[in-house]
Specification:
This protein is of the alpha+beta class. Helix content is 50%, strand content 10%. A 4-stranded mixed sheet has the order 2-1-3-4. InterPro entries: DCC1-like.
Length: 139
């Protein structure tokens, strides 16, 4: 793999807003891609892993999830962001980051930029909206 990849849930408006922030404000050489458009097999990821948390696949093949993935992304970014990434890896901060991440993941539909679709698992979204993300029509 030639560059690192940060994978997020593109069906979640909150996650998409966060990814847009990364692309606008955080200088990183990593690809930032929704899992729905990523080659998960090539990255060694599953849909279930990607639905559970953001994922990091380093250019060296290393992997991380959730706040550990965010720390890795920040660690490969500009100097100020690298400090934030290092801070996320400090054991007491890392220990607190996981419960905070899980709370955000459970409540992302309530956060700024979130929508009701953020609260639904992928299977339910596809049942309701189809694989294209548009509402299905019953004939």
């Amino acid at each position: 793999m030639e560059r690192s990849t940060f994978v997020y849930d593109g069906d979640c408006a909150f996650c998409t807003r966060c990814a847009e922030f990364i692309e606008r404000r955080i200088p990183t050489g990593a690809r930032v891609v929704p899992w729905q458009f990523a080659d998960l097999d090539a990255l060694g990821l599953t849909e279930a892993e990607c639905e559970e948390a953001v994922q990091w696949v380093g250019a060296d093949g290393s992997r991380a999830a959730g706040p550990d993935a965010i720390a890795r992304l920040l660690g490969e970014s500009g100097p100020l962001w690298r400090v934030a990434g290092a801070g996320l890896r400090v054991p007491p901060v890392r220990l607190a980051a996981w419960p905070a991440y899980r709370w955000v993941a459970r409540n992302r539909h309530r956060l700024p930029g979130g929508t009701a679709a953020c609260a639904l698992p992928q299977e339910a979204r596809e049942r309701l909206y189809g694989p294209s993300g548009r509402p299905t029509t019953d004939a």
